[in-house]
Amino acid sequence: MRIAVIDLGTNTFHLLIAEVSGQNFEVLYKTNVPVKLGEGRINDNIIIPEAFERGINCLKNFKETILKFRVEKIRATATSAVRSAGNGKDFVHIVKEQTGIEIEILSGDEEAALIYEGVKLSGAVEDLALIMDIGGGSVEFILCNTEKLIWKKSYNIGAARLMQRFFKSDPISDGDKNNILAHIQEELTDLFSVCAPYQPKTLIGSAGAFETFAELVSSAKKSVINLDTLQSYHFDFDEYITLSVKLINSTHQQRSEMPGIIPLRVDLIVIAALITNYVLGRLQINQLKLSTYDLKMGMLSQNLFEG
Hints:
This protein has 12 helices and 11 strands. By secondary structure, it is an alpha/beta fold. The chain has a 6-stranded mixed sheet, sandwiched between helices. Strands 3-2-1-4-5 form a 5-stranded mixed sheet, sandwiched between helices. Helix 4 crosses helix 12. It starts with a strand and ends with a helix.
């Protein structure tokens, strides 16, 4: 059976088409488009008209591709930007009207559970670990081991939200940094309480910003990684820390010239580095991994194992 999975993220819309046979699958097509649905007024819980239109046009293009591949089943999910927007349901309605694609708006808990399934499928979870997925609108944390999901929560501290609210300087000023960190600290109180008795030693970053970190670290070493074929990647911790400090201290222009950063992430990556470093430091974690499998693969995983 051919399945299309669509993930409508706050910054990026993803389309994955796979041929599924029993519990095996082959990815036939994969793309992502920087729609920036959360642009401008995500903290006012509004999808602005320009972003609304970009989203509709992107999904019309996705539908054309889906038809070309003769897909039998489509699953489309929307996360933080649509979930929190006052006009999110209008967006879902118009998409159905104009493309026939039915969008399921995920709760934060449902999103976290699907991220866990995707990351687990990658093989990155080898022991007790904390998974982190940094989206544009929200950040999901999942405490888990190879057997089960222990605890999960979605927080409205996504990179686009924090950037629009706090990131006003170039390079980012100490004042802006401190405001971001104070906000993260306040929001994540229960995360640290939950982790205290477990003491996870590994943080697994789910796709997105962590793929950018991996590409930048590899580029600095003059080695090449292929994220299309890679399921997981183990960072050298010191190399990651060196890179993250460089990103945080660099200007917009300097980051835009770094090979491995797509234009969408030039500023968002600073927020991602700040959140990641804060969590690593607070939980005293010194092992960092990337899972290239994320929410999309979690949705696919449900179809592999549902029968």
